[in-house]
Amino acid sequence: MFCPNPDCPHREETGRAAEFRAGIERCSDCGTALVDEDPFAAEAARSARHIEMVELTELTEPALAATLAAMLDEAGIGYEIEGGGVQDFFGVGRLGTGFSPITGAPQLRVDATRLAEAHDLLAALLASPPPPDPSSGEET
Ligand SMILES: [Zn+2]
Hints:
The structure is a single chain. By secondary structure, this protein is of the alpha+beta class. The chain has helices spanning 9-14, 39-48, 62-75, 86-91, 115-127, and strands at residues 53-58, 79-82, 107-111. Zinc ion binds at residues 3, 5, 8, 10, 18, 27, 29-30, 32.
């Protein structure tokens, strides 16, 4: 049994629906009537789909990372980046505020079925200097 309340204190604290054993009718945290299935797990599974991601490279170079991400976008290759500070990094053009020397470089992972293509893009990128990024400007 799961609490379906998106504002449930338990969910806000843990990121997961509160779970109770069968027979319990109401959430002990918020008093909402429980449901049989975790409503948020189904949602998360749908949005995650079933794409296997494999590591392509470490993003040691912010300018390179931004260019590579743009190339992957253009090629329609799914990718994700794991590591600290990345949300800011790719969010709103705040390039240059990049990586923490403490946590190390984020990892770029790509759709496993497109890994060869991604490798080619990376190789091409490394073989030539990255073009200037028109979105980065001189804001910093
Ligand atoms: Zn609840």
